[in-house]
Amino acid sequence: MRKSLSILLTLFLFHCCQTAAAQQDVAMLFTAPAPDFHSSSPLGNGRLGAMVFGRTNRERIVLNETSMWSGGVQNADDPDAIQYLPQIRQRLLEGKNVEAQQLLQQHFICKGPGSGGGRGANVKYGCYQTLGDLYIQWRDTAAPVTNYSRTLRVDSAYSIARWTRNGITYTEEVIVSAPQQVIAIRLKAYGGKLDFVTGLYRKERARLSVNKNQLYLQGSLNSAGDEGIRYAAVLQAMPKMGKSTSTDSTLHITNTDECILLIGAATDMNWPLVEQRGPAPLPRVSHTLQQAGAMSWQKIITTHVQDYQSYFNRCRLQLPTTAANINMADRLQQFSQGSPDAGLVSLYFNYGRYLLISSSRPGGMPANLQGLWAEEYQTPWNGDYHTNINIQMNYWPAEVTNLADCHQPLFTLLQQMARYGAHTAKTYYNAKGWVTHPITNPWGYTSPGEGADWGSTVTGGTWTATDLWQHYTYNKDLSFLRTYYPVIKGAADFFAGILIEEPKHHWLVTAPSNSPENSFFMPDGKQASTCMGPAVDMQLGREILTEAIEAARLLNTDRNWRDSMQSIYSRLAPDQVSPSTSALQEWLEDYKETEPLHRHISHSLALYPYDAITPWDTPELAQAMKLTLQKRGDGSTGWSKAQRIILWARMQDGNKAFDLFRQLLTPAFSTGIQMHKGGGTYANLFCAHPPFQIDGNFGGTAAIAEMLLQSHGKDGVIRLLPAWPSDVSLQTGAVKGLRARNGFEVAFSWRKGQVTTATIMSINGADCYMLLKNIKRIKNKDGKNILFTVEGNDVVRFKTKVGESYQLVTDEHVYAQTNANPAMPPYLRKTGIRLKKSGI
Question: pTM, whole model, 2 decimals?
Fold first, then answer.
């Protein structure tokens, strides 16, 4: 019986991929093999990754393993830097920013080459690298191919390519299994036999060997002349019948209609305690393949889908879809030009969650600049963890889209940052606590970068540490808070320890620092980046001190310490409105910007991801923030475009946010490093900065969630459709499994742009605050009405019990019951998010 169910599951997946028209929000269709990396299909299990090209002559599948990092542990802290700190600060106090920056460049950067100018593959900083390629060389390829399709299913993390040649239909199915920790490929021939040669390839630091039906790829990466991490990958071929022969570097499969290929890979990086090597990789991989090789394809794929969907099915967005079966590149082109495609909006949302599940799993390493997918040996910007927005944006969708456990790898990175950053804080600033500057890697790098104009931002670690509190606000888990309290406290200690008093207002400010990657003109016309107390630092400082004080209170600890932090908080430089522009001021002084359309809007953090600025509580600052967004312009790329979308959503302007979302999905073709043009989205929905950076995907996903639901601000009031666009194609829909702060899970549907049903599930029994017009009654799980109070401005409050669900009934809900069912969209009937009289 179990075997029959497994076979049915496989047939179901196959069938769904052939009828993708009905599943446009979870299926990505390609009608040709991938010409390049940016058209291939990404698969991953949080540690292993694969990019499937689906080629019918010489197939290429790019392989990744998330710990394939060159470089190694180093001490890049300059022990002489601290003696220059007083001089640097004095020059800043005197208004001599250019001179202060010159001192920084000479004496207050890292020791050594740092990140190698973003090309650190062969310096100690290192670089994330591809594991290599799997290739499949098909024989007898002279005849033309017909009926080609390649489909990626994001609801099952499954890719299938299908084509016909010489009357034989071939299929290539690929998954990356988390339970089995292998990349698994099944090749089938219908009406004929398979005939192909397969192998592994890596262009450097690799050696190949073959033993029967297994091919071994082994080597070690560079660590500035030393031996870096050792890696091993094994390809195992399992033909159903027929013949398997080998050379010293290939496997040749013939005379069978089915063959399974398994690839296992590992390194000896001992994450996160990287000072010592872990176990030798080859025995681990061999053991993994031995176990996976004993399983049937049906068992492998069944366990894979069950595991993956335990994450994916928690949250789903459903919007109306059209009947046309359309290639991804054409969908992007048409959508960016204004054609309605609500299914593409929900697909992008579902795809972003898919990418996070596939690149960041509990116990593993965090998603890097490319998640875990890279074809390079020198990835752009080293494929590292940038702490001036990029690593944070990677996790913006984690809590709100119900993937809190996928957030965990970042928390492990934070513990490592704190461990190494304590030395950097002492060495450069003689401060307690810990610091991480704008870049870090798995090797514990926390030093400044090699350039003072960008590498001296002091609050990268502070910003990242606030993710711990964000997780707490969604889950209210005191045991979690107790575990990570030392990291939060250490970040607050460092921030408090580097403050100085500025002379004009006697505010406490950071010094030296900069506003990430931006610069300004001094009154004499000279250009500088180094400054005191940029707005981003002060916003982050207020946030981390608030969080640390509240965490200490909740944990009933460090009373005297939190009193001292409160005293410091009251003296921090506030947000200011620029006298010259009326926009939010980016620096302590009203400097003129050198690049008014700069991609970073670092002084917007008080609006998002925090809530010190809201349209309802701080209207003057919100208006200044609106002017800032207008002056910065819409012409940004990649992650910067995604940030603008989410900021406009926080401003409650859904139409502006959706307009920028269309721009984000403009087809992209440039792959070289450009930060001012060429952005958009590649054919496989990867975000183009360019080059490809995954943060834009995650930021875009979080932006859609922010249009659907907000729960920030005083009392964590839940707002449904607070910034939903008026585009006619989006006026009906449903979503389940979104998370709100204070421990709530939310499902709701809407019609004609108005919420019709809403169900709230309480995780920990907190009082629920909700802004929803025309609430008539609230029912518990037994259908009984419960009391609620109206707090004003359409906000209601009601008590909840742990684990119980509550349905909110509105005038629109009554309309939906009496009028909507006959015309209910088919997609609502066919999915698990159905419109019922009792709710969703």
Answer: 0.94
